[in-house]
Hints:
Distance between the termini: 16 Å
Largest sheet: 4 strands, mixed
Number of strands: 4
Number of helices: 12
Structural class: alpha+beta
Strand order of the largest sheet: 1-2-4-3
Amino acid sequence: MHPEDAKAIQVIQKTKSLNPLVRKIMAYGYENKFRGINLGSYLKVNTHNLPKVYQAFKDVVRKVGIKEPDLYIYQDANLGAYTYGETNTFICVSSAVVEKLTVEEFQCVIAHECGHLLCKHSFYKSILRNLMDMKDALGLISWIAFEPLYLALQYWNRKSELSADRCAAAVTGDSVFQSMMLKLSSGVDAQIVNRSPLLDQAEKYHKFKRASWWNRIQQNCQEAIYSHPYGCERAWEIDRWKNSWQYRRLRETI
Length: 254
């Protein structure tokens, strides 16, 4: 788990009265709602439907060591995936993930989503989702009351993606992760020769951000509303982490 993700979760866990309420909302609200949407609209992958895809999926679930979630494919030309649930977990991937990525890159995406389930991110993301719904329903009143908490949870949300990225890299290797990240960022079948171009872009981005106080403020304000870190940041984080003892140990044991 990424250190900043772990710190943020520790803070949220101190609000003990919130936990039972969010679990009830998950079980009877979002989790139930998404289960109906998935069964009604998407293709469930199993031994009969796309058995090779299902086997690649099962291999990752076994390596991560979590209870097997349901796997669904939805039609979308864009690369994307998401997961949800605490009791009845599931992973949804776009058709582009199956069609445009190699088997190893597909497994990298699955390992990322499994990382969210392993870290119990769905539970804490439900708090953020509830706040977003309240913002839409209450408008200005909600913005004044909950915006600081919303921005704090969005900050944690971005850090949670880095934890899931670590799971993906640990299961499939950093080279597969960098290849997957390049395709996710560009949408094209770009090939990495020696080093991902996203790493060079990350260095330039960091230099640009440090160039002036205005650049820092502008970029920080822009990033604050995003649910995911920039692609070059995600690539850079894993490139740094691959030199750690933690990464080497995980690669040896998984």
